[in-house]
Amino acid sequence: MNNPINLFTIGFTQKSAEKFFETLIQAKVKRVIDTRLNNISQLAGFAKKADLEYFLQKIGKIDYVHLLDLAPTQDILDEYKKKKGDWKIYEQKFLKLISDRKIEKKVSPELLDSACLLCSEAKPHYCHRRLVAEYLNDRWGNVKVFHL
Hints:
Elements: E1 5-11, H1 17-26, E2 31-34, H2 49-60, E3 63-66, H3 74-81, H4 87-101, H5 103-106, H6 109-112, E4 115-119, H7 128-140, E5 143-147
Protein backbone atom coordinates (compact mmCIF):
# COMPACT_ATOMS: atom_id res chain seq x y z
CA MET A 1 0.00 0.00 0.00
CA ASN A 2 1.15 3.50 -0.73
CA ASN A 3 2.27 5.79 2.06
CA PRO A 4 -0.58 7.75 3.58
CA ILE A 5 -1.27 11.15 2.08
CA ASN A 6 -1.92 13.86 4.64
CA LEU A 7 -4.49 16.16 3.07
CA PHE A 8 -5.80 19.22 4.87
CA THR A 9 -8.83 21.37 4.10
CA ILE A 10 -9.61 24.94 5.14
CA GLY A 11 -12.15 27.64 4.49
CA PHE A 12 -11.24 31.28 4.90
CA THR A 13 -14.55 32.84 5.95
CA GLN A 14 -14.97 33.62 9.63
CA LYS A 15 -11.17 33.63 10.01
CA SER A 16 -8.84 36.57 10.42
CA ALA A 17 -5.76 36.59 8.20
CA GLU A 18 -3.67 35.85 11.29
CA LYS A 19 -5.76 32.81 12.26
CA PHE A 20 -5.83 31.55 8.64
CA PHE A 21 -2.07 31.74 8.02
CA GLU A 22 -1.06 30.55 11.52
CA THR A 23 -3.34 27.51 11.17
CA LEU A 24 -1.68 26.55 7.87
CA ILE A 25 1.83 27.05 9.27
CA GLN A 26 1.13 25.07 12.45
CA ALA A 27 -0.24 22.18 10.35
CA LYS A 28 2.99 22.26 8.27
CA VAL A 29 1.07 22.71 5.02
CA LYS A 30 3.40 22.80 2.01
CA ARG A 31 0.94 24.01 -0.61
CA VAL A 32 -2.54 25.44 -0.76
CA ILE A 33 -4.73 24.08 -3.54
CA ASP A 34 -7.44 26.58 -4.35
CA THR A 35 -10.63 24.71 -5.27
CA ARG A 36 -12.78 27.80 -5.79
CA LEU A 37 -14.40 28.53 -9.11
CA ASN A 38 -14.18 32.28 -8.44
CA ASN A 39 -11.00 33.27 -6.67
CA ILE A 40 -10.72 36.95 -7.52
CA SER A 41 -13.90 38.56 -6.20
CA GLN A 42 -14.12 37.15 -2.69
CA LEU A 43 -14.94 39.36 0.28
CA ALA A 44 -11.81 38.66 2.31
CA GLY A 45 -8.97 40.69 0.81
CA PHE A 46 -6.28 38.22 1.83
CA ALA A 47 -8.09 35.40 -0.01
CA LYS A 48 -8.03 36.94 -3.50
CA LYS A 49 -5.79 34.89 -5.79
CA ALA A 50 -2.87 37.30 -6.27
CA ASP A 51 -2.86 38.44 -2.64
CA LEU A 52 -3.20 34.91 -1.31
CA GLU A 53 -0.37 33.59 -3.45
CA TYR A 54 1.88 36.42 -2.20
CA PHE A 55 0.94 36.08 1.49
CA LEU A 56 1.29 32.28 1.52
CA GLN A 57 4.81 32.48 0.12
CA LYS A 58 5.88 35.50 2.20
CA ILE A 59 4.39 34.42 5.53
CA GLY A 60 4.73 30.64 5.43
CA LYS A 61 6.80 29.68 2.36
CA ILE A 62 3.69 27.82 1.21
CA ASP A 63 3.08 27.21 -2.49
CA TYR A 64 -0.19 28.11 -4.19
CA VAL A 65 -1.97 26.17 -6.96
CA HIS A 66 -5.41 26.85 -8.42
CA LEU A 67 -7.10 23.70 -9.75
CA LEU A 68 -10.37 24.35 -11.52
CA ASP A 69 -10.89 20.60 -11.97
CA LEU A 70 -11.64 20.49 -8.23
CA ALA A 71 -14.22 23.30 -8.41
CA PRO A 72 -17.93 23.02 -9.10
CA THR A 73 -19.36 24.42 -12.33
CA GLN A 74 -21.14 27.79 -12.21
CA ASP A 75 -24.47 26.00 -12.84
CA ILE A 76 -24.05 23.61 -9.92
CA LEU A 77 -22.86 26.42 -7.65
CA ASP A 78 -25.67 28.83 -8.59
CA GLU A 79 -28.36 26.22 -8.16
CA TYR A 80 -27.18 25.52 -4.62
CA LYS A 81 -26.16 29.03 -3.48
CA LYS A 82 -28.39 31.48 -5.34
CA LYS A 83 -31.47 29.28 -5.59
CA LYS A 84 -31.03 27.83 -2.09
CA GLY A 85 -30.83 24.32 -3.48
CA ASP A 86 -30.75 21.05 -1.60
CA TRP A 87 -27.32 19.93 -0.33
CA LYS A 88 -27.95 16.27 -1.31
CA ILE A 89 -28.59 17.30 -4.93
CA TYR A 90 -25.48 19.53 -4.94
CA GLU A 91 -23.45 16.66 -3.50
CA GLN A 92 -24.70 14.18 -6.14
CA LYS A 93 -24.07 16.59 -9.01
CA PHE A 94 -20.62 17.56 -7.75
CA LEU A 95 -19.54 13.96 -7.15
CA LYS A 96 -20.71 13.05 -10.67
CA LEU A 97 -18.77 16.03 -12.04
CA ILE A 98 -15.46 15.12 -10.39
CA SER A 99 -15.98 11.48 -11.33
CA ASP A 100 -16.59 12.49 -14.98
CA ARG A 101 -13.49 14.70 -14.80
CA LYS A 102 -11.51 11.74 -13.38
CA ILE A 103 -9.75 14.02 -10.91
CA GLU A 104 -7.97 11.02 -9.38
CA LYS A 105 -5.99 10.78 -12.65
CA LYS A 106 -5.47 14.55 -13.05
CA VAL A 107 -3.96 15.27 -9.65
CA SER A 108 -1.04 13.34 -8.26
CA PRO A 109 -0.75 12.00 -4.73
CA GLU A 110 2.58 13.88 -4.53
CA LEU A 111 0.84 17.19 -5.25
CA LEU A 112 -1.73 16.54 -2.53
CA ASP A 113 0.56 15.23 0.22
CA SER A 114 0.84 17.90 2.94
CA ALA A 115 -1.38 20.12 0.80
CA CYS A 116 -4.51 21.96 1.89
CA LEU A 117 -7.68 22.23 -0.18
CA LEU A 118 -9.03 25.78 0.08
CA CYS A 119 -12.50 27.17 -0.40
CA SER A 120 -14.62 29.80 1.25
CA GLU A 121 -16.97 27.78 3.47
CA ALA A 122 -16.07 28.15 7.15
CA LYS A 123 -16.80 24.50 7.98
CA PRO A 124 -16.32 21.39 5.82
CA HIS A 125 -19.75 19.78 6.37
CA TYR A 126 -21.50 21.45 3.43
CA CYS A 127 -18.48 22.13 1.28
CA HIS A 128 -17.09 20.63 -1.90
CA ARG A 129 -13.55 20.50 -0.47
CA ARG A 130 -14.68 17.71 1.88
CA LEU A 131 -16.28 15.88 -1.05
CA VAL A 132 -13.02 16.12 -3.06
CA ALA A 133 -10.98 14.75 -0.15
CA GLU A 134 -13.40 11.88 0.51
CA TYR A 135 -13.68 11.07 -3.20
CA LEU A 136 -9.89 10.84 -3.55
CA ASN A 137 -9.66 8.65 -0.47
CA ASP A 138 -12.33 6.36 -1.95
CA ARG A 139 -10.26 6.08 -5.16
CA TRP A 140 -6.76 5.87 -3.63
CA GLY A 141 -7.52 4.45 -0.18
CA ASN A 142 -4.64 6.18 1.59
CA VAL A 143 -5.75 9.78 2.14
CA LYS A 144 -5.86 10.99 5.73
CA VAL A 145 -8.06 14.09 5.83
CA PHE A 146 -7.67 16.86 8.41
CA HIS A 147 -10.16 19.74 8.43
CA LEU A 148 -8.45 22.87 9.78
